[in-house]
Amino acid sequence: xxxxxxxxxxxxxxxAGSAVLGAAIPGVSLADEWQFKLPELPYAEDAxxxxxxxxxxxxxxxKHHAGYTNKLNAAIEGTDLxxxxxxxxxxxxxxxxEDIRVTVRNNGGGYANHSLFWQIMSPDGGGEPExxxxxxxxxDFGGFADxxxxxxxxxxxxxxxxxxxxxxxxxxxxxxxxxxxxxxLMNGRTPILGIDVWEHAYYLHYQNRRxxxxxxFFNVINWQRVGELYAGA
Amino acid sequence: MAFELPSLPYAEDAxxxxxxxxxxxxxxxKHHAAYTSNLNAAIEGTALxxxxxxxxxxxxxxxxEDIRTAVRNNGGGYANHNLFWQIIGPNGGGEPSGALADAINSAFxxFGDxxxxxxxxxxxxxxxxxxxxxxxxxxxxxxxxxxxxxxLMDGGVPILGIDVWEHAYYLNYQNRRxxxxxxFFNVINWDKVAELYAAAG
Lengths: 233, 201
Known about the structure:
The structure holds 2 protein chains of 2 kinds. Chain A is mainly alpha-helical.
């Protein structure tokens, strides 16, 4: 409990998720107490123009990703999950108490997926991977063009909200898609590239033209970062 | 006989400021149109050609396996939006009366309690989907479905539905889904909902 306010951290986190902001509660600095913190965008909101517009980036990061982060923190506060890494939490959802499992799945997935998403894009992105990752793509898909076709088809065929992924498992690459905020981490694989195909990721700029968004996404992929994630996996 | 995209029963800007004209135009002319054409393409030349959409969706197990997902998604999208345009309108809002009001009071206690339950179902549907007021044998209940699934798939009759795919509200409301849900109550065509309730017997 916070000595000045009589509120537990969980109470405060719940308040933070509502319209009542922590600034109104003396002696409580929310950002310092949250286990999971909303990462800053590694570039300006308008840095990915014209492929992804600044308004979409601002709302996507500052509202959607922030919302997942707040709700994740509120859900795990005071449970056995507090202190675990997000990868461990999502890789072992059956360990999550049943009354918060869906909340952790949805918001923990949203937290992790977007934390990855900002990293694997860049204003200096586009082009093709090099080195070991290029070799693995050649080996597992027959070449970059075939990979691009398969990844785009996966992203284009997610019905409703979800993601398409390039994931690594013991060095082998695979393309998959997940509904909502589910992630390959839930199946023991490491996502190294993902495209968000929730409509909130593209609707302000592309509306129903998801295929145009997917094509544009290839112009902002940070292949250097994806290569690092492949090496790290 | 192919399914046809119904015309909007009012102008695209008729639901302003609650639902904006641009959203209505794209929602109807692009999204609903695509579900319709994808549904027609899926069932062309199959035994489903000529069946009603309600009969198709109520018995998806009878749909050939290679087109079942396409029919579920696009047939659901076709039917759901057909209903959606009917149960909203420029002279909407207020509260139902007559037998529908009695059924709502019986199931939820009051219109306000119904509104709370329906709004909560719409707000908590994670990802894309719909929240519904459904009748089954005269009783009414609130439920929600993912993506373009419909209560028809479980034998219920939807008489009111709110589309909570982001495409239904994002241009005007962005991440503020609760504001869209609140605004939706200003355009509900309760006369039409009551007709659907009466017809469902």
